[in-house]
Amino acid sequence: MIRILKSGQAEVEKVLNKVYEDQAVYEQRVSEILKEVRERGDEAVLEYTARFDKARLTPENLRVSAEEIEEAYRVIDKDVLPALQKARDNIAAYHEKQLQKCWFDPEEDGTVLGQLVRPLERVGIYVPGGTASYPSSVLMNAVPAKVAGVKEIVMVAPPTAGGRIDPYSIVAAAEAGVTEIYKVGGAQAVAALAYGTRTIRKVDLITGPGNIYVTLAKKMVYGQVNIDMLAGPSEILIIADASADPTYVAADLLSQAEHDVLASAVLVTPSEKLAHAVKAEIERQVSYLSRKEILTASLRDYSAIIVTDSLAEAIEMANTYAPEHLELAVEKPFDILGKIKNAGAVFMGHYTAEPVGDYYAGPNHVLPTGGTARFYSPLNVDTFMKKMSIIAYSRDRLEKVGQDIVKLAKVEGLDAHANSIQVRLDKLAKK
């Protein structure tokens, strides 16, 4: 089911450099959907929703109504609501610490430099749906937007064939401060958010994970709107030493493998004894878990247990892989944290299971995948904000440095730039 490999084997490189199917086969279809929605608006959105989700909606019931929100509160398990609210509060508290302030730096000659920080006006969050329930994704996308001060938070999610959205996602949206919810998913939802329709006004930013069609649609509309990232299949890498409990390690690997047949779950350890114990434990736990087919495919095709010569080699391998989720299942995790260079989120020690971060702790679970943690960050408050530079030069400062600016402009052959400064300097010289 899952392979045990030794470092140095050719198979290790294949595991650490995942290769998925060519996306070009989907690009033309996504491009067609975007074009249709851009040109025909609601009509195209509703046609694609009927075709792909089997939900026949109208412009009048495309938006989730106040009555539907009230009904969602009535039908959910009442024990879940307090858990959702606690998770929301934890996420808000964590992201509040990320808020940046405007600043100004006045100087003695009257010059002022500074930066204004402003929230975006209107953002769209995509939440997977249909037959699935992802209230945690609602919270992770909407709460940071709310903390940032975004006034209009628009949620889209694919409906069921009956034209409904999962009630837990609706309640999570209401609790997180979402202002509009629409029953539309797929590339057509991304197009509606990016271009706007009569019913769904366009947004400034689109965040949230989705399938290959959603991901490619976000990629194609970038520039028309901003996007958070291009999320790929989920992945986890665990660095473990002999102190790790094989039961815990196996459970955490499986917690990510169950997401998708393309998900990747990798254990890297210098302990061969632990490697074999985890393999046996994985086989035992898979036997009673519900998503056996997905788990089996993920473990077989994109996962592995890699035995290294040392813990240092395991750390180097993790930095090369740059995983979405990195667990340090070692005796002294803080001793090696300083050596970690690339990861979306780091889970420290034997009791920080990955789902702690997925649902409850507060840090965002929308994380860079596919090695992009080398240069990209988790979804955060800055994603929902923009910064404006403030420049106020005084007369004294311009007289002092103006010729430097003129020289630089002339080097670039931009005489009008130089002239803009020179006419001021000439006039000031006559006073």
TrEMBL record:
Annotated active site = 324-325
Q: Which Pfam families match?
A: Histidinol_dh
| Positions with a binding annotation for Zn(2+) | 256, 259, 358, 417
Q: Which molecular-function annotations from GO does this UniProt entry contain?
A: histidinol dehydrogenase activity; NAD binding; zinc ion binding
Pathway entry = Amino-acid biosynthesis; L-histidine biosynthesis; L-histidine from 5-phospho-alpha-D-ribose 1-diphosphate: step 9/9
Which UniProt keywords are listed? Amino-acid biosynthesis, Histidine biosynthesis, Metal-binding, NAD, Oxidoreductase, Zinc
Q: Which reaction does it catalyse?
A: L-histidinol + 2 NAD(+) + H2O = L-histidine + 2 NADH + 3 H(+)
Q: Its function?
A: Catalyzes the sequential NAD-dependent oxidations of L-histidinol to L-histidinaldehyde and then to L-histidine.
Please state which protein family the record places this protein in: Belongs to the histidinol dehydrogenase family.
What's this protein's name?
Histidinol dehydrogenase
Which species is this UniProt entry from?
Thermincola potens (strain JR)
Taxonomic classification: Bacteria, Bacillati, Bacillota, Clostridia, Eubacteriales
Gene from which the chain derives: hisD
